[in-house]
């Protein structure tokens, strides 16, 4: 390859892994591109590792592809905040010479669609960078692939063209590239037998059914192929075929303690669960209070049975799942793939409905699916699928019981069951680095929490202790949800409900640090906790009182929302202690908020803004809000907020 071959770096910003998956795919395809050089693959959190961002003028032959998602309410993924600060600099030559293209991921169900990608794409030219390809905006609400696939195709064409110019090569015609992207016709069919009736139904064209192909989602070649290779028994099955399962990071942990933190007459149940990794299976990097761990979850067994039944899938058949390139992903039984690699509660995207329609034996069902995914059926899709949060399983049972699509289609177009995240409530210093404790609230019909509750109950009943598969959170290496480095820094923690979990970890670590420190001069700590009733759901009451007695916690302020005549929430308690809160901020202290991101996070945010306005900004509301933003920039106002899945 010529030295002039453009070098392509791929950078991503992600919360749940979509952007990383696409970035990795681009990076992995680079070696097969004759005239391009594979550069770095990096999280934008680590942008400083990428020379193109340090000395961009020296790197005019370097092309940077940025794949980034939006989270919260139009916010960037937490880990890339330092990068977002970099691009706010007002220096028109800061990134002079840097060439880039942005692929923004978002969801039109949210107001600030693709906000992070837009912000990056608009900011970089102001720093002297050059955009070489128009931004892509992929909508997870209807299927990322609808935009991602053509955008990638264009990106490769553009890069090939740039490479040809740089190396004075003949420019390949787009037609030949297009052709190479077509599915190869001699690929083995994923299903050996195709039902005759299905062939007959398929023979009726889209036009004959009254649909216009151009108003339907585009069909793309499958990204995965599954071939039957026999029956279970003859094959060794892997421990897990979940895409979250990477044996180098996954930890197997055993339940070593479990107790209910709520009373038997409480409306909800919260469990304290302790997991231990054995010595051969230690958590690689010592975790810190504030870290969250993902629990790898399987589909509910009864839902798995219903799915197998409706599609008439043979549970013991062994499939070899491969990428388009032929590279094997996993070999396992149909049952295991259904349990672990597709999310049976996922909402079917339009591209899946389009693909499923080809496999319906009933013409009316085929028409229903085609209408739902067509542009003309937009309203019905919103009413019948999005608003009802219809799962693929419900859709199959209610609208397409005659569908006989092969499993490979679902493996290709459905997401896998996502890991569920839990914040450690333990301290590695005090509890041991191979011990992890969590507190979780059991959610009605919740997949993970009901499964974990069963494990906890069986431990509490003295039955066998079960195993759980855990992964550390991708962003932990750069997480900012950490207690202050110095014992001298005062801080306020606001964590109602299970939001208290990481703060118990913070305080346990503090207790340990105080016992090791000679210096008796330490800052103050205040915890605002909230629950319904003192007698029912005051989580970790004894532990918190003990931490207070031992001076790791100076003040515990609890808002009981159902104990008195008036509902009291943490934000009310904050307002009642406004002066104290402001004093902590004025002394250089930090504010932490953790828990469910619904009303609580907004209420607390508004209360803190008001407090700062009154005590630090001469009553000016706008200045209070600006001060809160500034504190967030300085990592002195840190939030770990989760939303319902
Ligand atoms: C970084 C991070 C840390 C987290 N830490 C904790 C923690 O320490 N403790 C903890 O309990 N949770 C925590 N969560 C939330 C947790 O990951 C799960 O989302 C939650 O336990 C529900 O999982 P599930 O599989 O039981 O429910 P799902 O099967 O995902 O949801 C089933 C249904 O219930 C709804 N739902 C989900 N959660 C709730 C809820 N809390 N209240 C009402 N309805 C809900 C969903 O919208 C869905 O309709 C954290 C999340 C993140 C991202
Ligand atoms: C809690 C949450 C908040 C989100 N907020 C937004 C938003 O404000 N704007 C938007 O365009 N997309 C939003 N999204 C959609 C994501 O950007 C989209 O699902 C994307 O594919 C996620 O990519 P990732 O896995 O790389 O993070 C949100 C998703 C979640 C789960």
Automatic annotation (TrEMBL):
**Residues of the FAD-binding FR-type domain:** 248-484
Q: Which organism is it from?
A: Gracilariopsis chorda
Which co-factor is required? FMN; FAD
Q: Compositionally biased, Low complexity: which spans? A: 170-183
**PANTHER family (UniProt xref):** METHIONINE SYNTHASE REDUCTASE (PTHR19384:SF84), NITRIC OXIDE SYNTHASE-RELATED (PTHR19384)
List residues of the Flavodoxin-like domain. 8-156
EC number(s)?
1.16.1.8
From the UniProt entry, list the residue stretches annotated as the region Disordered.
170-192
**Pfam families listed in its UniProt record:** FAD_binding_1, Flavodoxin_1, NAD_binding_1
Write out the transmembrane intervals: none
GO BP terms in the entry: homocysteine metabolic process; methionine biosynthetic process
**Keywords per UniProt:** Amino-acid biosynthesis, FAD, Flavoprotein, FMN, Methionine biosynthesis, NADP, Oxidoreductase, S-adenosyl-L-methionine
The entry's protein name is Methionine synthase reductase
Question: Which GO cellular component term is one of those annotated?
Answer: cytosol
Q: Give the lineage.
A: Eukaryota, Rhodophyta, Florideophyceae, Rhodymeniophycidae, Gracilariales
Q: Does the keyword Metal-binding apply?
A: no
- MF terms in GO: [methionine synthase] reductase (NADPH) activity; flavin adenine dinucleotide binding; FMN binding
